Amino acid sequence: MTTALIIFIFITGYIAIAFEHVLKVNKAASALITGVLCWTVYILQSNDVHTVSEGLVHSFGEIASILFFLLGAMTIVELIDSHNGFDVITRKINAKSKSKLLFIIAAITFFLSSLLDNLTTAIVMVSLCAKLLNDKEDRLWFAGIIIITSNLGGAWSPLGDVTTTMLWIGGQITALKIITMLLLPCILASIIPVLIVAKKFKGEKMEYSAIAESSAIEKKEGKIILISGIGFLLFVPLFKTITHLPPFMGMLLALGLMWVITTFIHKNKTADTQKFMVSSALQKIDSPSILFFLGILLAVAALQSTGILSSLATTLNTTFKNDYIIGTVLGLLSSVVDNVPLVAASQGMYDLSAYPADHHFWQFLAFTTGSGGSAIIIGSAAGVAVMGIEQINFMWYLKKISWLALIAFAVGIAVFLVQNYLLQ
Hints:
The structure is a single chain. 77% of the residues lie in helices and 0% in strands. By secondary structure, it is mostly helical. The chain has one domain. The longest helix is centred in the first third of the chain and has 34 residues, at 49-82.
């Protein structure tokens, strides 16, 4: 009864989020209510309140680490923007057509997400596109491609996606092997949706907005903030590798250092410099999106804590009894619920003695759960962040972008299977 009620609440909340514009209720409100109700039902029906409370605190700690990571990344990007740091890049991009620009953005997103992570990369690239594209509809299409390519770019790198990192740390995959096995599937999977969307923009020329001329000092400050910001973002995965601390610690360190740099840059100025400071950037970031993310992750954590996701994984294993079908279904499920608990459940189910390191199942799982989340906009951290920044409608994404993500998903699977067969 408890399980059925929690699933009902989760599905109802999901529908409310999907029809946000019809109901006129902000998606953050629906997500928060869903998350809290799931845990409320769980604790009221439990015989061990203390254990449930401890589980909630543990889950909230993991969720908070993602939220603070997101908060830090969005604030650093906002600081770069307020100092016109992105103008340095936009001046270098001289694509004459929107199609060419789309390929440039997709390529940068794909490879940058393997060095940073898909969440940070998506935030940076969508912010950059906002500087390059005037039309809202164009920005939405570009944002859709950024979500797909950032998730695919993160899937083949041990540092690019949380699930790939989990498998790497857990000993299920090795860095070199996952790169060599997933790079080609991810590249080809990325190219197909980009080619399709590029046809939509065929013949459309770029109309660049005139970039306001800045003084020599302002240009210098913009470059300093851009280089510092991007440099610190790239430093985050390195910090994690060296210290073994969670990524949000590196992001908070990066934010603190950016705070110090902006303070020193503007400390001797007589004019009002408040708009350039971190305190101002914190006010500009999209707080409702962070609360939305909190609600969604709380709801998913309830599904995980009640054992619903583990039961689902066990059911898949006994029903299909085929590694590739199970991996595909888990990948598609990751567009509905968070891929992290799905992969965690899989790691617990499949023993390394039966599925040793670099077994094709782990590689396939890294691809499907890393890329499958693109099918629905709230199926990945990158999608949630972009949804908040560009205010993308859930149903618009479902109609316009989801089928492209599914094509990319299918292409990647096909390429992986052929490659794996040839290498056996």
